[in-house]
């Protein structure tokens, strides 16, 4: 089944071999302009389908546990899960730097623990602090979750000054790492998710309130018998434009017609002048009708003037 899905992906998307940017810059080659319709072979989507195929093969040959990896593929068909993943990956650089900065703090606390409080560790197998390496691993494993007071015993029989220093050590760790550090990470994710939700709301509202192609508001079309839905589905269907762009991308340039070459040149130059902004066939027909009615009214006025002139000439002859 996975093989059929992978073959279908290759047939429908036609992944193209595009060298990564850093390789092109290293070779001194010009970085080409890549269309959003092109899916690179070394892109994440292609590598994801290859990974699904590998997991399917491992599950068939070795253990069926590898098939559980395919459950992650449900995110491909669920927009809500995609937005949740994008909320983490969109500001991945910020999360990465915050995480590295937190590891620096953990390293400093591991140094202090190894130098001062190493003898206070509990006699349990999961906590180690005999070397600096063990102390750092223990800090990474238990520090952000339960804090350093979980694996360091309080010096009950020690003088009060040492107990005070240990309490201050635990409180500062709790404030910097557990409270501030984790809340910064959660804040970045929540803010990004809220931003994505607001952007989706604006896009949905704009799609319902105006035409994507001509940007005319929906209430302009409600004054006509056809209505707004007929306009966006028949007259200015956005998917017709997308399919036309795909058709131009797949067609050989030497076979372009004059109109196709004009649109292709406009797209290449990042120009959208070929879109009928503020124009529609229904409004053009309305303008024609209005113009025709104005011509008819002008003809009537001319006919009245001619009749009045004839009457005046008759009176003058008498």
Automatic annotation (TrEMBL):
<dbReference type="InterPro" id="IPR005821">
    <property type="entry name" value="Ion_trans_dom"/>
</dbReference>
<keyword id="KW-1133">Transmembrane helix</keyword>
<feature type="transmembrane region" description="Helical">
    <location>
        <begin position="6"/>
        <end position="24"/>
    </location>
</feature>
<dbReference type="InterPro" id="IPR015925">
    <property type="entry name" value="Ryanodine_IP3_receptor"/>
</dbReference>
<keyword id="KW-0472">Membrane</keyword>
<keyword id="KW-0812">Transmembrane</keyword>
<dbReference type="Pfam" id="PF00520">
    <property type="entry name" value="Ion_trans"/>
</dbReference>
<feature type="transmembrane region" description="Helical">
    <location>
        <begin position="167"/>
        <end position="190"/>
    </location>
</feature>
<feature type="domain" description="Ion transport">
    <location>
        <begin position="65"/>
        <end position="199"/>
    </location>
</feature>
<dbReference type="GO" id="GO:0005216">
    <property type="term" value="F:monoatomic ion channel activity"/>
</dbReference>
<feature type="transmembrane region" description="Helical">
    <location>
        <begin position="95"/>
        <end position="117"/>
    </location>
</feature>
<feature type="transmembrane region" description="Helical">
    <location>
        <begin position="36"/>
        <end position="65"/>
    </location>
</feature>
<protein>
    <recommendedName>
        <fullName>Ion transport domain-containing protein</fullName>
    </recommendedName>
</protein>
<dbReference type="GO" id="GO:0006816">
    <property type="term" value="P:calcium ion transport"/>
</dbReference>
<dbReference type="GO" id="GO:0016020">
    <property type="term" value="C:membrane"/>
</dbReference>
């Amino acid at each position: 089944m996975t093989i059929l899905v992978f073959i279908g992906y290759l047939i429908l998307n036609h992944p193209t071999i595009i060298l990564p940017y850093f390789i092109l810059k290293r070779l001194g080659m010009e970085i080409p302009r890549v269309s959003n319709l092109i899916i690179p072979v070394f892109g994440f989507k292609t590598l994801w389908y290859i990974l699904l195929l590998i997991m399917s093969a491992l599950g068939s040959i070795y253990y069926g546990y590898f098939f559980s990896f395919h459950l992650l593929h449900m995110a491909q068909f669920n927009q809500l899960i995609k937005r949740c993943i994008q909320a983490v990956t969109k500001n991945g650089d910020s999360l990465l730097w915050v995480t590295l900065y937190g590891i620096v703090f953990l390293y400093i606390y591991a140094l202090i623990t190894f130098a001062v409080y190493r003898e206070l560790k509990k006699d349990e197998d999961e906590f180690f602090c005999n070397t600096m390496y063990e102390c750092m691993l223990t800090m990474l494993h238990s520090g952000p979750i339960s804090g350093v007071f979980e694996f360091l015993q309080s010096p009950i029989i020690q003088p009060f000054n040492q107990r005070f220093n240990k309490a201050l050590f635990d409180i500062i760790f709790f404030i910097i790492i557990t409270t501030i550090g984790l809340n910064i990470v959660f804040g970045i994710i929540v803010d990004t998710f809220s931003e994505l939700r607001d952007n989706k709301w604006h896009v949905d509202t704009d799609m319902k309130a105006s035409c994507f192609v001509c940007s005319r508001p929906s209430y302009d079309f409600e004054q006509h018998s056809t209505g707004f839905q007929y306009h966006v589905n028949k007259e200015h269907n956005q998917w017709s434009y997308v399919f036309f762009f795909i058709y131009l991308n797949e067609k050989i340039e030497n076979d372009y017609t004059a109109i196709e070459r004009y649109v292709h040149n406009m797209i290449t130059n990042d120009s959208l002048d070929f879109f009928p902004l503020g124009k529609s066939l229904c409004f053009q027909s309305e303008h024609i009708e209005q113009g025709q009615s104005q011509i008819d009214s002008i003809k009537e006025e001319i006919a009245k003037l001619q009749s009045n002139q004839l009457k005046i000439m008759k009176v003058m002859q008498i």
